[in-house]
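Researcher: For the annotation table, I need structure tokens for Outer membrane transport energization protein ExbB. Please keep the output clean. Sequence:
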Amino acid sequence: MTETTSAATAIPPAANQIPVSGADIASAAGTTPAAPEITSALIVDATLWILIGFSVVTWALILIKGIQHLRISQHNRSYGKKFWGAQDFQAAAALEGNKGPAARVADIGFTTLIEADGGTTTHDLEHTGDRQELLDRRLRQQMQKERGALESGLAILATIGSISPFVGLFGTVWGIMGALTSISKSGSASLDVVAGPIGEALVATAVGIAVAVPAVIGYNFFIRRNKVIWAFLDDFAIDFVHLALKTSFLIKRPVSGSVASSRTSGTGAKHPVPKASHEDLQAEGAQI
């Protein structure tokens, strides 16, 4: 009778058994199950790759903008010699093969004068005002377009120059946090344990600064060049208006030139321009 009671006590009924999970077993053993985590080395590597991408974009923009400014300087210099070397204002309107911001500003000016002289302008708000007001407005609009083209891409350089050090600093801070975690787990603060992870983390800050310096220098350089080109275009537009004023803002459609689009058909073939009759010349002289 005593043996039967002992057996019943040793083996509890199944209804009283509590299921035990793997987490409870691990907790009882003093350990926790391993969970996937983002290591500090992965964050530092991702930061470095981002900075490398910033560097590629920076040098590509510097190269593109450098070529752009070199061509603009050559075109403006070439057209300036042609324009100021022309016999008169009418001859300047007949210049051909012109490129660059200055040529485009002059082209829109000549086109405006020709349209106003030929009466081809429409009666709307865009063409409100006398010839001088219309010319000033058109020149200013074209100069704003040229300014927008000159400033394209500079915002990216400014952004990269501003955020690159902080991106590198983020990688450094995260790397140091990982190094400190490793030190706490190992229980050793020797130089061998500390120097490696912290040194790798500091590389991110160095790379961030190395990326930011060319971006800031390139941005400041091109901003300065844009101011020089803008001042040149502003002076050129003022001189253009003064020259147009001397001709009473009247100009004949040039026989040849970049603004003589009426001579060219849609296929590019040129058609002869009929000579003005004696009555036309007399009427033009009376109008002037």
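Researcher: And a one-line annotation?
Model: The chain has a mean pLDDT of 75.
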